[in-house]
Amino acid sequence: MITTRTVSARAYAAGQDVQLLFPVLFLVGIGIVMVYSASSALAVKRFGSDYYFLKKQAVFALVGICTLIVCRHVPYTAFRPLAYPLLVLSVALLGLVLLSPFGVTAGGSSRWLRLGPVNFQPSEFARLALIVYLAYSMERKADKIREFSIGFLPHVAVLGLMAALMLKQPDFGSAAILAGLTWLMMFIGGVRLTYLMSTCVLLGIGAAYAITHAGYRTRRLMSFLDPWQYSSDAGYQIVHSLMAFGSGGWWGAGIGKGVQKLFYLPEPHTDFIFSVIGEELGVAGVLLIILLYVLIVWKGIRIARNAPDLFGCYLAVGLTAALALQICINMGVTLGLLPTKGLTLPFLSYGGTSLVLNMAAIGILMNIAASGKTARGLA
Prior knowledge:
By secondary structure, the protein is mostly helical. It is 70% helix and 4% strand. The mean pLDDT is 86.
């Protein structure tokens, strides 16, 4: 029997879905257009067709939308029993990148697995697996979360294992996101601040060691501090990224009319697509993109606050924080505010693994939102 309360619950859930879905689909649509604009010249040179990356990104978007729909209708509580299996699978996939013949190396990094005609990036999956594990573990240990051996040590050990495998690829950016994500989720969960602050000190020491003992990281740091001095070497990407933003003005040069994507910016359709947006859509386009991201993060925070249980709250916090960190790091890199790291911009950059898993995250957030209001009986 369908009651007034049931109809109201469905109407509320539909409204919640639209509030989160609109900015996501808007970004995906902009991304498809900008991937084509940024990659057409590169696609002609490499594959003889300017539509090569456009067609693939459109397929990724379709798969991502289907994944979002599935995750929207699968109860988020179904991820509880999958916490450890997902964690083990993600570690195994990270190991396969380094140890199996299926690992793919590009640009000096081994970050992908080739599964038939598809390249898959395990670090993106590992991020989701870590979020699910942390949410499940912290909910179970809520009454003892302040104890070092229960609320802190196991979570840091899992982070350390994943980060070590990522640094071997090497993928410093993904490892940094995992570290920030774990710290934030433990902080929200109530882990003692003294443990967290000591971790920051140790991570700082570890990051300094990683930078000083890897020549390319040292060059990136120096080019970050003074990119124009290294404009023909390590600072090349940042210089041309800044030139793209600088030449865009308030309204941009127009879609398809950018110059820096024409073999100046390396891989302009992936890590530096925000630079192409800045040149072709100008300040207005950049502000629009930022506004859409702010809406998504704001909605994610509200979903976390209104979640029906701790698992849903921690899961929503983790998914929202992962998106926010990736957005801030990518934008910071392209604007010269952070050292160069190989990270995509969610929903905009070319890449199947990132797009599909980020769409899955949005679907899970939508399910948590609907479950939260239903659990409160539309109070």
